[in-house]
Specification:
mainly alpha, 2 helices, binds zinc ion, 61% helix
């Protein structure tokens, strides 16, 4: 047992007040600030951001596709290849999101 304090700097460069329980290369950290716990939190936060960003892109592109379809329909010039390209892009995003959600 050690009474060492966590080495992590928190607000205004003061040190975290929790007791160090994890030691990496001689540096002590509390459970919350250990490099492993920090990496896990960062990965979870990155994943959450990516999921939100994918959901946003899917929504936006689907709306754009709707606008384009309406415009082309009004002009009586619906292009199948353009539609296919737009739909494929949205489907690819949806699959990326499903995959990422499945990993959680
Ligand atoms: Zn700490």
């Amino acid at each position: 047992m050690s009474d060492e304090q966590c080495s992590e700097l928190v607000y205004h460069h003061s040190r975290c007040s929790r007791k160090a329980t994890v030691f990496v290369n001689g540096v002590g950290y509390c459970k919350w600030h250990s490099p492993d716990a920090t990496a896990k939190r960062e990965a979870a936060s990155e994943r959450k951001y990516k999921l939100e960003s994918l959901a946003h892109d899917i929504k936006w592109r689907t709306r754009e596709l709707g606008n384009l379809a309406l415009l082309l329909y009004k002009q009586d010039m619906v292009s199948a290849s353009q539609m296919r390209k737009e739909c494929d892009a949205i489907i690819a995003l949806e699959e990326e999101r499903k995959k990422l959600e499945g990993e959680g």
